[in-house]
Design goal:
The structure is a single chain. The protein has 14 helices and two strands. It is mainly alpha-helical. It has a single domain, classed as ABC transporter involved in vitamin B12 uptake, BtuC, CATH 1.10.3470.10. Strands 1-2 form a two-stranded antiparallel sheet. A hairpin with a 2-residue loop joins strand 1 and strand 2. Helix 3 crosses helix 12 and helix 3 packs across helix 13.
Length: 336
């Protein structure tokens, strides 16, 4: 196991402030760049209520701001969820969708397309599907009264495979909604609505904060469950709480964005390469870097073929896959 360096309050604060600045910079970039580029002068005039073109204010606050907030919530939430699952399952390949939650959410979404539900109905179906899979995996993944990482992982993979097969079956029955279903499977933020930020942002922020507060306990769990129990940590309760909270957050994010791959897998590894193995900094760093990463990817997705746009999940996969391979090569060279 890698040795965890001592983390001071000042060192933690400096890192978090730096990461916060990166995230804010990415958010401002997302607000400025698009099919209509906005200058910094017009941006600040609009933000501070000075006289400016009303169309610019409408573009910033009504069109781009909800999308940027969505990208930050989804990117940050998926990244911290990936860091938590990797710590809880003690598996470097764990990511937010590995326990089948995305398959459940997608099953609900595709089912709503099949019956012709509205966008709000799709969100309800997707969240309900994710919630059902979360509960199924939680119940089946228990062993001796607690969550066993290997049992939980295998159960999630099998349940996810079952729902993935059901999704493919339903897709063959779609006609006009096929393109929407494909966008959902790839991951897409184009349907971001201002009204939905009322519950997506607070839920993601609260769950992420709770996970960060538990991060020091996962440093102890990395020593092994038996050692953690001897040090007074109720590992069964901790794993159950973090699994349920993280899955609830992931289910909510899937219900508004579809499946956006590689964010929850890649970002925690990037953070470990930069900051080391200490979960006290990995969890918050994953949130901020993930928020900035998805915001920039979404900006690229909606400008690269402007005025049309690409699904952001395609961008994160095209960038994330080669970067992840490079990280693995660098990791193996360091081990040698």
């Amino acid at each position: 196991m890698e040795r965890t360096a001592r983390l001071t309050v000042s060192g933690f604060s400096v890192r978090i402030f730096f990461l916060f600045l990166i995230t804010i910079t990415a958010a401002i970039t997302g607000l400025l760049i698009g099919s209509v580029n906005i200058s910094l002068n017009d941006f600040f005039n609009s933000v501070f209520g000075k006289e400016t073109d009303p169309a610019i204010s409408q573009i910033i606050f009504d069109i781009r701001l909800p999308r940027v907030l969505y990208a930050m919530a989804v990117g940050g939430g998926l990244s911290i969820a990936g860091a938590v699952f990797q710590a809880m399952l003690m598996n470097p390949l764990a990511e937010p969708y590995i326990l089948g939650i995305s398959s459940g959410g997608t099953f609900g979404a595709v089912l709503s397309f099949l019956i012709g539900a509205s966008f709000f109905g799709t969100q309800i179906f997707a969240f309900a599907g994710a919630l059902c899979v979360m509960l199924i995996v939680f119940v089946l993944g228990k062993r001796f009264g607690g969550l066993e990482p290997n049992v939980l992982l295998l159960t999630g993979v099998m349940v996810g495979a079952f729902f993935s097969a059901a999704i493919l079956l339903m897709i063959t029955l779609l006609n006009d909604s096929l393109r929407t279903a494909v966008f959902w499977l790839i991951g897409n933020l184009s349907l971001a609505q201002k009204a939905n930020t009322v519950y997506v942002l607070p839920l993601t922020a609260v769950v992420s904060l709770i996970l960060i507060l538990y991060s020091d306990k996962y440093n102890v769990i990395s020593l092994g469950s038996d050692s953690a129990k001897q040090l007074g940590i109720n590992t069964n309760l901790l794993k159950s709480i973090t699994y349920l909270l993280t899955s609830l957050m992931v289910g909510t994010l899937v219900s508004v964005s579809g499946i956006i791959g590689f964010v929850g897998l890649l970002i925690p590894h990037v953070c470990r390469m930069i900051f080391g193995p200490d979960n006290r900094i990995i969890f918050p760093a994953s949130f901020f870097i993930g928020a900035a990463y998805l915001t920039l990817c979404d900006t690229l997705a909606r400008t690269i073929v402007s005025p049309a746009e690409l699904p952001v999940g395609a961008i994160t996969a095209l960038i994330g896959a080669p970067v992840f391979v490079l990280l693995l090569r660098k990791r193996f060279k360091m081990i040698k």
